[in-house]
Prior knowledge:
Shape: globular
Strand content: 15-25%
Oligomer: single chain
Strand order of the largest sheet: 2-1-3-12-4-13
Number of domains: 3
Structural class: alpha/beta
CATH topology of the largest domain: D-Maltodextrin-Binding Protein, domain 2
CATH architecture of the largest domain: 3-Layer(aba) Sandwich
Mean pLDDT: 92
Amino acid sequence: MLKKLITIMFISIFGINTVKAKMPDQINFGIISTESASALEKSFAPFLSDMSKSLGVTVKPFFASDYAGVIEAMRFNKVDLAWFGNKSAIVAVDRAGGEVFAQTIKDDGSEGYHSLLITNKDSDLNSLEDVLKCDKTKTFGNGDPNSTSGFAIPGYYVWALNNKTPEECFKRVTRSNHEGNALAVANNKVDVATNNTESIYARLQKNNMKAFKNIKEIWRSPLIPSDPMVWRKNLSAEVKQKIYFFIMQYGRFGSMEKVKKERETLANLSDGWGPFLASSNAQLLDVRQIEAFKKKLKAQKKNDMAGVAKAEEELKKLKELANIVGKAGY
């Protein structure tokens, strides 16, 4: 009875019959480079296998050396749906025809995570105030420019709000993914780096305890909404329906044996996921506001009044949209 009700719900949402859904020969699933491709491929394999069985077509993972590679693949219809961070999802929505349709949550039910600054456990840096002394004697590991927690959030809270830039504060600035920055700090290759709570306290602590023990956290951001799932807006309604059905029922509906197996599969993804939540592009409003405020601060620093006015207008529009959504969710 429950399965029948769920099917009716999805038919009503998309206005079509699931039985007649026509699928392509293959679905390409983009996975952002938070760690090595081999580690990501191993953890996502069971989930993508279950998706393949549900959709009746092969679901193939797509990896790139950076976030931009996955975004560009979606732009040119080489990726059909993808796991992104909020910052990279904004670029995918604005430039690659993407659309947020679901949100990841952690297996403990929490709906967000935090950006971090980390240093080696033996470092003399112990706080954000120490970092902001900016004596240019240290090195800094920044994140991918399209990373929310590795770049956008520290770019706002650490640098923009304090009217500083990494280049002003450090003698050398490098870029890497979360795993690369964590290992660089643990092995004293850089003095301080960006990261996030998922990467450090879930993946690294689980997979590399030696490196984890060499790292200390010296700054933590406000809560960031959990990562969105994004599909190509130009996918057919039939394809979207089947993908949406699979995502929303996974780890949630069916026998307890099925739910248990799928929860275990989700728990092994990234930092440990739980069943997905419905979402939309409205999830990106908070990070959009942060990006607009950074533009305003940058324009003020250059005494660019036209740029300030443009950023203020963008902030006004974003605030209006955020008020529509309110606290009821995405």
